[in-house]
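task queued by scheduler; priority normal; single chain, no ligands, no partner chains; default sampling; output format set to structure tokens
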Amino acid sequence: MRIVNTVIASSVLAIAFAAAPASAQSTYTSRATFQAASGTLATETFSGCGTATTGVAGSVSSTSGPCTGIVAGVTYSPGAGNLYIAGPGQSSNPTTALGMDNPSGNPFLITFAQNKSAFGLDLFQNFGGGGQSGSAAPFTVSFLLSGANVASYNFGVASGTGSFFGFTGAIFDTVRVAQTNGYAVIDNVSFGTVAAVPETATWGMMIAGFGLMGAAMRNRRRSTKVTFA
């Protein structure tokens, strides 16, 4: 009986703790909701980039470009052309930000030295000189891992105020951000890792598995009970 129970317990453990799927991918349009779901994250405000609107050739990181105090392990670079530092008030953003200079539709590439699973940022329209369209502008945010696309989302960014976009639920090492027919401006970039939460089906399997383990242990105790004539 002990052998049988051991086999049952081992099988149950294998079911209950089989590689759990990653939690479902989720997107957020509220920073407060995103932070509540993802916990404490690092946030890049670009406050060490100065205040004047200036061009930046190449990339911006803790080891390259004109900005000081950039969070280590993250690089902001253009798919082509140049970046620029957007001073306060440019593109409707009240604080210093980072913009894509040229050409229209060219993406930001945000790369991480270590994989992440949570990402959020404030996005602003720029149709040249910080111009706003008067209506929501289409943006695309894509998440990649080792060059392969993990997820991609299209959404509209408000004119005159900007919008927040957040994402959790998949591992990535690169984020691609583009304003489809303009020049994207980004600010308050938050990132980190969050623990994967088992999906509903996985929780059900685990609960059933623990129930079977309990039954197997009760059977084992009864089978080892000593009786006297």
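post-processing summary
- The helical segments are 2-16, 31-38, 200-223.
- Residues 3-22 have pLDDT under 50 and may be disordered.
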